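Reading group handout, session on sequence-to-structure problems. Before we discuss, look at one worked example. The prompt was deliberately terse, the way you'd type it at a terminal:

> structure Heterokaryon incompatibility domain-containing protein

The input record follows.
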Amino acid sequence: MIKNWLATCEEEHKKCVPNEGPFNVDLSFFRCIDVEDMYITPVPITSQYVALSYKWGDCTPFLLLKPNKDDLFAKDGLRRNWDSIPRTIRDTIDFVRGMGCRYVWIDQLCLIQDDDGDRGTGINAMDLVYEQAYFTIIAGSGTDADSGLPGVREGTRSSARQVTSEVLPGVNLVLRHTMEDIVAKSEYHHRGWT
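And the output record:
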């Protein structure tokens, strides 16, 4: 279904192409996760990539740091550390691969978290990171980075009960919520950006 949405978007919205630049910010920090070779690699911000927007929460994060940078920048570096990576990030990587996309940007793993310069430069360009993304995954139902993405793994999507009320015999009224209503009631609503 999502692949069909993206195909429709590409066909119907040809004018919605990423900005080719020049950009007025330092982009030397920009790197993505290569979901095929499972490592973090520098890519041009004009590459086709997916972004993740989620709430870190209280779970133990797995971060790109100076001491693990060489391992995570090497082929299969993420595969070697797979069990340490929070569920939402693992689900995102699996989902992006399933969508046939190669790159995903996730702040915990694409900004060097113990390098104030790298992290600061990335934070200052956050609007551009999300603007340039092919699409953004919003982990709206999660309370932290270990909540996962409902529907990526078997048995993780709860079937929401549709609220109906019989107003006349045989005539039911259905309560419909807007996306704004749903997001406003989520933990995601309390994020800093996106």
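Points for discussion. First: The mean pLDDT is 87. Second: The two ends are 24 Å apart (CA to CA).
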